[in-house]
Queue: 2 jobs
Job 1
Amino acid sequence: MRLHALSVSDFVDRVERAGFSGGNFTFDAQFATLCASAEELGLNQLRPAIDWLSSERPSQSQTDVICHGDFQPLNILVDHGSLTGVIDWVKATIADPALDYGAVLAIFATVPIRVPAGLQRALRALMNNLARAHSRRCRSLPQREAKLRYYQIFNCVVQLVTVGRNRAQGRTRHGVYNSSVGVANLINHVHQLTGLNVSLPA
């Protein structure tokens, strides 16, 4: 909430004074990059989800904010119970606040859990409950449920394209989702929310 309260114009001014275009940080720019990457890598099996993202785009938000894009526990620094920082800003985007909340829902629902099989279901339920509690903070947003679903799918497709790029570059062990379980979790989440069937090349 503190992040989303920061001044977007101040952020853009600072970015542009550093020699970058503020336009690179819009959701439109991020989505265009996603589409171009999928095309470049030949990830045609993701086309149904990308087409869905194009056609189901929520109406333009009147209150775009600075979104982290990957706001989850491993990117939050805490010292003795006090927040000290947030790291890994590679997905920073000026967008609807639902982008951050949808990302949390998708990450907690899909990230591979490396614990004994007997604990997986209980831990996943706990994580999903935490994500739902967190996402309730955006309950006042127009089209809340549709937006949360949309940005969950967006996050999953971003993760799948990232896996595809890592594999194309020979980095077969790079990234938390770069495993058969990670990819299956993302694909299943997309199918659960949209009914679409997508995949990655072998």
Note: Residues 8-194 form a domain with the Aminoglycoside 3'-phosphotransferase; Chain: A, domain 2 fold (CATH 3.90.1200).
Job 2
Amino acid sequence: MIRGRLLAWLGFVAALIALAYGSRAAAGKPPKNALYEYSFAVGGLVQYGVMLGIVLLIAMGPESRALLALRPPISWRRALGSCALVIAGIYILTGIVTPFLHPGREQGLTPSGWEPSHAWAFAANFVVIALVAPFVEELTFRGLGFSLLEPYGRVTAIVVIGILFGLVHGLVEGLPILAAFGAGLAWLRSRTTSVYPGMLVHAAFNAVALTLAVTT
């Protein structure tokens, strides 16, 4: 049963990766001010809704909560300390890599400036990217994915989850940072046995990135 779930999950993630790189090759970057469009938020909600449905389908059964790591961490104090390490590590890596690569520019979601007239549309996209995306992506990768890969070794699970998480975003220059971030979140999941700390870190990271996008 576990092997069947793993094959289903790997097939699902492979499809997401192919779709991400295929859409990039066909359509290029999103529109410059996509974060000011309600349609972008709606598209994100649909995408993450489908992802969540497939993940829940693969995990379906009496052990689904355990597979998704929907349990409190062993120690919240220890978990918060580990969260701080992951956040510090990813920002240090970003500072080192950014002069040579340009992941933000490649992703193409940085608006040309703050536009108060589109504040509500930006708020809708903020909710999708800073709340919905971390919730669904953590359940997908650090929840179900990590649980299915952990029997092959924790280091293997951390590395594979990191690489696949990076690839699913469909970027090239941004891949090192995203893969490192994904591996850091997988390490956090391994250390805390819970998906919740990763959700907090992921949400905070995305929220900061969106805030900086319109204030710098």
Note: Residues 2-215 form one domain.
